[in-house]
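Annex B. Sample input.
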Amino acid sequence: MGTTKRLPVYVSLEETADMLSVSTRTIRRRISDGTIPAYHCGKRHIRIRLDDLENALERIPAVGW
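Annex B, continued. Sample output.
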């Protein structure tokens, strides 16, 4: 048996915005500034790889509360 290749999961702008609790406009700005990589699916549809989205997030260092 061959190895099973796991396909990447792609989400829409709306799904991405919902996941991050921001607007689709914010997602579009992050795509424009290169923070979040995005891909065209057809002429109009934009999709974001879930793995790329997770990598785009930055952890905020803990502060001495």
